[in-house]
Please model this.
Amino acid sequence: MVRLVQSLVDGALQGSVLSLAAVGFSLIFGVLQIINLSHGVIVVLGAYLALMLRRLWGVDPLIALPAVAAVCFAFGYVYQRYLISPAIRRANLLYSLLVTYGVALVAQNAFTLVFSPDNQSIRPDYANQFFRIGGVTVNVLQIIAFVASVLLIALLAFLLRRFPLGRTIRATAEQALAARLCGVDVDEVHALTFGLSAAFAGAAGVLIGMLYPFAPTAQENWTIYGFVVVVLGGAGSAAGALLGGLLLGIIGALTSEYIGPAYPNAVVFLVLVLMLLVKPNGLLGSAFGGSR
Amino acid sequence: MTVSRRAALKMGGTALAYLSAGRAFADSKTITFGGSVPMSGKDSATGLDVYEGYKVAVKYINEQLGGAKIAGQTYKLALQLFDDASDPQRATTLIQKQVDGGTDFFLGSFSSPIVLPSAAITERAKKPMVQAGGGADQIFTRHFRYVFGMYPRASRQLISLVAMLKSMSGEVKTCSIIATNDAYSKAQTAGASASLKEAGVSILDTFSLPPTATDVSGVVNDLRAKTPDVLIATTHSEVSELIVQQLVSTGTNIKLLFFSLGPENAAFRKNLGKYAEGLTFIQYWKASYKYTDPFFGSNQKFYEYYKSATTRKESYQTVAAAACITSYVKAMQDAKSIDPQKVRDALAALDYESFYGPIKFTPDGDGDPVLMGAAIGQVQKTGLEVIFPAKIETAKMIFPLPAWSSR
Model:
């Protein structure tokens, strides 16, 4: 029983970070209908920015998190506005796949040039504190990451639901033409949405850099996880990303415990295929699919 | 026909230039070593270590010795190594291109999944490959004649670890093994498992991880529940680091921790800081070893030159890679030829002491398990010490390891 509870706790804690890393991917897919193959790059960028702040000025990664998110927001805004959007305008939506894939390759090599291909870590000393309750071991940093992830995802949900920008994003996602007719600058909203998604990916990158070693090649994994989370939970909503991430974490932890540590990926992708067959819009469905 | 003075001067100048170019070509014969290394991608951290070793040895021979002297001729050495991006498919395309282009001598990439298919191509072309990046048994059990490795095959690499555990007068009775699902790790695990059983150490669990594991909390939970006396991880550097991080962050204490790859790497130790202290690993080379060398003079002189030639911190893979170059030159000198077939035969017959240690290959091409076998090292005060075998130890082993919380 303790082993089961331990696996569920480990899975949920890891899943919350996966949710935060994937929520931006989900939002971009839901609103702009772009599969951002460079999403993992922004996650890793967040980790490297936190590393730089730590090396240069000794800034604790958690304190660096808002600054990293702000830089990633600016990067995402410029990236969408001046690279992805023109590519789509000149050709079609499919070209965004090529552009984002190309950027991912270039960025991975740029990270290697600047930071070396070696593994890096921004794990602070307090990251290794832990406590035990009834035989279940919980790491303090994982709790911090869990709380930060849930709070940030809740903040995004609140922003999308209650703030004018959120309403504009939702309106643009549901009917871009109608929004344009109402005077909404759709290109600007798309760039802001991309920036917002990048900010969340960068914030997740900081937490991930604290939890796990990272290297330029890690970006591939975080893009794949983003895709899996969207398929499991549904595109475009914070709740869908949270659910998808938690499911991904828990499935991985239970597989590792009861089938074997070599098989979490195999089982996760099996579930992914089943979901695509049975419920292709994810458990919560596409947040904006109904109106399209 | 009349020729103007200007035209005559032009023709004369051209002829002179042509003659002097031909003379220069004849004087500066070049031996090119082809191949690929992972300069990017998942294996690039160690791949760049290997690359640095090749570069430094070539630089030394060209600049300090004026070239390689073979059968009365002096040759410059050149590297023609391309980035295989840690991708076996890309590596094989690059190697095939070089074979088709007439390259006669090859150096190896890093990691067995890349070296194995690359070696199959050079073998088919009957071109020698000397490599410091692939230890998987499959490289050396397919009756290849042209492939030589600087380490014993993977299944023989942990012989000294088991001997060390056996020598600890019964203090180590149980162990758990973590392996990744790749040729090198699996072969090493199979070899270690067999000899551990013979040594009377009981194996509680053998965990198998995917090569790119991102979380090992399930494995760590099992380790905490059973607590073996020693954990043996035949994992690559990034997974080794993840395992240590998760052991520390859950307070999972084990008396002795061994990692095949990781602690020898400076970035690995820097990332883990005080938690790297006490980790044990395979130690193929150490700067303080007293070896003589026909090119550098001694191991100490090699190390001094290495430090002056590059800023990249060395690992044993770096030194083994440098030894690939000098072994090639030694074989060419012994063969008195740069004919690939004769050089291959001379490589197979090599038996000499180098800065890397004694170099002698088995008939299958891997390093002789006795002469080229590993010592066991331990991270102590951020440096690397040899703790086994006793005759070359530079420090006493820290055992049992202190609890994470007391560091």
User: Anything to note?
Assistant: Residues 2-32 of chain A form the longest helix (31 residues).
